[in-house]
Amino acid sequence: MEKIKGYVTGVNGNMVSVRVDGSITKNEVGFILVGDTRLKGEVIRVNGDIANMQIYEMTNGIKVGDVAEFTGEMMSVELGPGILTQVFDGLQNPLPDLARKCGFFLQRGVYLDPIPNRDWEFTPCVRKGDKLRPGDALGSVPEGLFEHKIMLPFGFKGEWTVTDIVPKGSYNVRARIATVEDARGNKKDLTMVFSWPIKRAITCYDKRLRPDEPLVTKVRCIDTFLPVAKGGTFCTPGPFGAGKTVLQHMEARNSEVDIVIVAACGERAGEVVEVLQEFPELVDPRTGRSLMERTVIICNTSSMPVAAREASVYTAVTLAEYYRQMGLDVLLLADSTSRWAQAMREMSGRLEEIPGEEAFPAYLESLIAAFYERAGKVRLRNGKVASVTIGGTVSPAGGNFEEPVTQATLKVVGAFHGLSRERSDSRKYPAIHPLESWSKYTGIVEKEKVDKARSVLFRSNEVNQMMKVVGEEGTSSEDYIVYQKGEFLDAVYLQQNSFDPIDQAVSPERQRYTFEVLYSVLMTEFNLTDKKEIRAFFNELRQMFLDWNNTEWESEAFARQEKSLKALIDSRKK
Amino acid sequence: MEKVYTKIDSIVGNVVTVRAQGVRNGDLALVGDSYASVIKLDGDVVSLQVFSGAMGVNTRDHVKFLGKPMQVSYSDDLLGRVFTGSGVPRDNGPALNENMIEIGGPSVNPSKRIVPKNLIRTGIPMIDVFNTLVESQKLPIFSVSGEPYNQLLARIAMQAEVDIIILGGMGLKYDDYLFFRDTLEKSGAMSRTIMFIHTAADPIVECTLVPDMSLAVAERFALDGKKVLVLLTDMTNFADAQKEMAITMEQVPSNRGYPGDLYSCLASRYEKAVDFEGAGSLTILAVTTMPGDDVTHPVPDNTGYITEGQYYLKNGHIEPFGSLSRLKQNVNKDTRDDHRSLMDGMIKLYAAYKESLEKKSMGFMMSDWDEKLLKYGNLFESRLMDLSVNISLEDALDTGWEILAECFEPNETGLRSDLINERWPKDKAGK
Questions:
Q1: Mutation for testing the B interface, residue in A303, A345, A353 having most B CBs under 10 Å
Q2: Position A314 confidence tier, pLDDT thresholds 50, 70, 90
Q3: Of A17, A103, A346, which is closest to B260 when you measure between CB atoms?
Q4: Residue B316 CB: number of other CB atoms within 10 A?
Q5: CATH code of B197's domain
Q6: Do B293 and B416 have their domain in common?
Q7: B101 and B16 in one domain?
Q8: What is the mean pLDDT of residues B126-145?
Q9: How many structural domains comprise chain B?
Q10: What is the three-state SS of B128-170?
Q11: What is the pLDDT of residue B430?
């Protein structure tokens, strides 16, 4: 096929206009040739024979008349074994390899193969003559902890017959392992690698299911009160310094899923470094292996080119969908979707589109919705159930949740974990606001009880507001007990010490168990009248419960502490 | 490429357009005798941003393209010198044209970054003890017009234990510029200092170049193994200059008139802060004045999302509350064994002092405990918080113990007993 070419006619920031000879596809990838470097870009608008391209690199040095080449393919990622444990930039460039090649700095125009060039032990699962549809497995290779399925590329249409398949053995990742033929007799050779456009959702499954199974994050406040479901979506907006990233790292560490994809989109590079240093050392309690073995990091930090930042969240979600196709549960954590939205705003401004609210483009909402809709729990054709769960942080300007990105996100997510500066200032972590946040999913604890516990929290907050006006003296003992109950719930259950080896991750069994005790405290009527007495009682209770939280689950100390805790509760029961 | 164009098509704000061919985006040009850079190409129409402003530019003025991007000279000769935002000497020294390097270069590969581990001593207890500055950190100083933030920067420039100081001034009052120059000259720190100064009277475009020039030079020194501290004042002026230029370029404003790429703009500068493995490091301290003392204003707000903590400079001292160095945990465990506990303990007591002070101002009775706290608060403010205090970290910790001993019984401080046994000043006990 003849390559379509063009010539640069204009440059404005990272947008380049090109006059094209021939046909062109929207969202097609092209390169601008500057000297001997090739700068990657994507066609985002076509007008007559002028194509507007957003360039994923700095545009310095481009001049009118420079040659542009088009690939005929949309912006894609390479899918194949060897993706796990890697650190990519937004365009799936492996950053450590890039560092080995170019040193300290990110040199523009250098694109490396994201799939490591190595041999894999391939085991076929089909025979000659078998019929396959896109997404069906041909065989598998062992990738770390998982059976990495080698599938018929998602882009193949209809049914294909296997005409040749290699026997079990070791093959290079790019070597031919099978040949397939469609109904019309078109033959295609297959390797372990194929590509897929990042902005197109992978839908090679049988059926999408309702997200009804809780995704355990081992954060009490989330699992019990604001649950997330496998295949669901949630967002975490919060002002700077409220602990968004710390919370996400906790989720990445402790969530009970097979694979975690962390997309650091337009945030500080230092935070990614923390993950890079920390994760290889941490052990995944479920498998006993390093946490890094189930992790992929997509890292397009704030100083890296803006257009690639826009691509990075799509790259991340495409990789998530790819692993879902193998029957795995995948969690995608995007930090922060606001930076992604800002990248769209910058491009929209350069295209001189009519701006919407706060100059965000009018299509912001539909793009955010489309992104979150790529999450989902599905039943694959082989009957396996798998899921992609998406959690995104939002960094609202001035910490004000009324801004467009937060609002557009709230419309489409199933759970809202709003972080509050007030709580983080008073060192109450995780700083998720228990009253403003919500979740539409079912959690690990009976809903009725959770609702009752929440209503205690609401009432306690009301009493607290009232007390600020009338003072402690003007509050009745009953109200004061409700207030203390709410504070107790907050201190011993909602707050969690992410630095304590035991308290930092709480298993669902333990959560159910301790919640029952907590619930009994909330529902018990106590034989207390004097405020000083009430305060002293709850102080003691709190201290005991906190110590209980720090004992090992099902240990002797745990049972002992439980006993004295219950004795204390019973001693004041009405 | 020595072709000279003599027909300027349009002059809008600081941007002129001229019809020319073969011009590269980002290249430098001479318009009359002022430098300009290519910011947009559209067919053969080239838009140029004139550094010294388009005032007085004639449509017949000569436009000459230099065929290279904006550069700055890099050598040890820079030390002790003062330049404008476009790199022209501001002192009486010679112009430097050797060993030119590009400004606004590519960013550091995240996988080459390392976890910061060295502290920078400044001799200011509120920084060293309570919110330690760490090599490769980027920190803003949030302040309000009228506060002594430039005095603070000058003190840091004189006292900080680094190899090279680069001071980038944006929209400085001329007096402030003279203050910086004279203070650093008098203290002898000038010989390790390089200044890029844009004063309020200078053309606005140069203001936007100051951080890029400063950071490009700083980066090279860091790569050559030097510990570099970049001081920028005031980033709000930088953001306002970006706003002014964006509006004259008819860009769609996003929030309070600032361009939509304000975050990326600030981030690409702040993210230059880095610790090069096996070489030097680059640390950034940048004053950001908050218009109307409002931290949700777009400039401090965006800055807060980028930087690793912040210092609040209010009422002439660095606020212990609100100020935060996110990286201090990386270093304050290795300084002295009492550092962390003493830091936490003293801050808690200071918070209690603030409560007592509030009670006092509301006319409540002062208990013995309140009186102790009030005494403590006053000593804390005068011996540690005052900006003129210049003592080492160890001396500051010792001073902390002395203050505690003068005000409290050991068991009132909430500090661990083993620390108290080891550190409590014996001669002061019981006073």
A1: A303
A2: very high
A3: A346
A4: 14
A5: 3.40.50.12240
A6: no
A7: no
A8: 94
A9: 3
A10: HHHCCEECCCEEEEEECCCCCHHHHHHHHHHHCCCCEEEEEEE
A11: 45
Which two three-digit tokens encode residue A562? Answer: 């439980």
Half-sphere exposure (Cβ direction) of B251: Cα atoms closer than 13 Å: 26
Instruction: Tell me which residue in A64, A108, A342 faces B44 most closely, judged by beta carbons.
Output: A64
From CA B239, how far away is CA B289, in angstroms rounded? 11
Helix (H) or strand (E) holding A405: helix A404-412
The answer to whether the CB atoms of B116 and A64 lie below 8 A apart is no
Residues B228 and B111 in one domain: yes
C-alpha–C-alpha distance, residues B406 and B21, integer Å: 77
A274 and B115: CB-CB below 8 Å?
yes
| Mean pLDDT rounded to a whole number for chain A | 92
A12/B252 touch (CB, cutoff 8 Å), yes or no:
no
Please tell me the pTM assigned to this model: 0.92
B367 touches chain A (CB under 8 A): no
Joined tokens for residue A364: 């912001």
Chain B partners within 8 Å of A9 (Cβ): 42-43
Mean pLDDT of B161-174: 95
By the 8 A CB rule, do B169 and B233 touch? yes
Q: How many CB pairs under 8 A join A and B?
A: 165
What is the least distance, in Å, from the CA of A176 to any CA of chain B?
33
Contact indicator for A549, A501 with CB cutoff of 8 Å: no
Which residues, 6+ apart, have CB-to-CB distance to A343 below 8 Å? A266, A306, A307, A309, A310
What is the DSSP code (8-state) at residue A430?
A: S
B337: nearest Cα among B405, B422, B260? B422
* Domains of chain A, start order: 5-74 (2.40.10.170), 116-192 (2.40.50.100), 207-439 (3.40.50.300), 447-571 (1.10.1140.10)
pLDDT at position B218 is 97
Q: Is the pLDDT of residue A1 over 70?
A: no
| B106 Cα to chain A: minimum distance (Å) | 6
Q: Is the model's pLDDT at A219 over the cut of 90?
A: yes
Give B57 to chain A, closest Cα distance, Å. 24
Chain B residue nearest residue A359, CA to CA = B254
**Residues of A in Cβ contact (< 8 Å) with B113:** 269-270, 272-273
> Averaged over A105-124, what is the pLDDT?
93
Which of B400-406's residues contact partners 24+ apart within 8 Å by CB, and which partners?
Answer: B400/B129, B400/B342, B400/B346, B401/B338, B401/B342, B401/B425, B402/B428, B403/B346, B403/B376, B403/B379, B404/B345, B404/B346, B404/B349, B404/B376, B405/B429, B405/B431, B406/B375, B406/B379, B406/B431
pLDDT category at A98 given cuts 50, 70, 90 is very high
Are B320 and B276 in the same domain? yes
The band of A2, judged by pLDDT with boundaries at 50, 70 and 90, is low
Q: Indicate yes or no: CB of B69 within 8 angstroms of CB of A60.
A: yes
B391 has a pLDDT exceeding 60: yes
Q: Do B263 and A339 touch (CB under 8 A)?
A: yes
Alpha-carbon span A208 to A379, nearest angstrom: 6
